[in-house]
Amino acid sequence: MTPPPSGPVCTGASKAATGVAAAPAGRAALAAGYPSFATYVRARGPVLLRTARSLTANPFDAEDLLQTALTKTFVAWERIEDHRALDGYVRRALLNTRTSQWRKRKVDEFACDELPESAGLPQADPAEQQGLHDAMWRAVMKLPDRQRAMVVLRYYEDLSEAQTAEVLGVSIGTVKSAVSRALGKLREDPELAPVR
Questions:
Q1: pLDDT tens, 132-143?
Q2: What is the mean pLDDT of the chain?
Q3: What is the DSSP string of the chain?
Q4: pLDDT tens sequence across 41-58
Q5: Is the pLDDT assigned to residue 11 strictly greater than 60?
Q6: What's phi and psi for 93, nearest 5 deg?
Q7: CA-CA distance, 97 to 119, in Å (whole number)?
Q8: pTM score, whole prediction
Q9: How many Cα atoms are found within 13 Å in the side-chain-facing hemisphere of 36?
């Protein structure tokens, strides 16, 4: 196994994408406004993190998920010819990585008498909007994995049905029917009764 590089990964990506011997993909990146991997991550990181958080309930898992997807993007940086499609590439990497995690999931949680670190848990925000937001996320997290991914891409990422189908590699009809079933489940969720 090779040791990890000593020094920042993004610096290497910057040199690879903008160096003298850059491949045509590097020039395409310059034209698209992302002269380096580091520039891309700085510009799009918050949006991509929001997508990752939509795919998992734990914010720390979301950060790990995004890091893995960005690592895959960094490795493929020179091969990606159209850097305008980088968000789609990263989203696809997020979904593929999350799907792999679902398939290999193992139970490593156990019940205990006392909650660990109960004093350090944040208090719930009493504001009505925060309560509604929380109720909506709980309802979304109850959806099956595939439906949740489609709802997140369709409504939280504001992708069209065609774009969602392309990212997931399914037909538009599959997206329409799965999103319709997901919305039906959300309408029936008792926690969302006050919204109706």
A1: 778 888 888 889
A2: 75
A3: -PPPPSS-HHHHHHHHHHSTT--HHHHHHHHHT--SHHHHHHHHHHHHHHHHHHH-S-HHHHHHHHHHHHHHHHHHGGG-S-GGGHHHHHHHHHHHHHHHHHHH--------SS-TTGGGSPPPP-SHHHHHHHHHHHHHHTS-HHHHHHHIIIIIS---HHHHHHHHTS-HHHHHHHHHHHHHHHHH-GGGTTT-
A4: 898 989 999 989 988 888
A5: no
A6: -65, -40
A7: 33
A8: 0.41
A9: 13
Structure tokens at 160: 């069209």
Give me 8's structure tokens: 């920042």
Percent of the chain surpassing pLDDT 90: 12
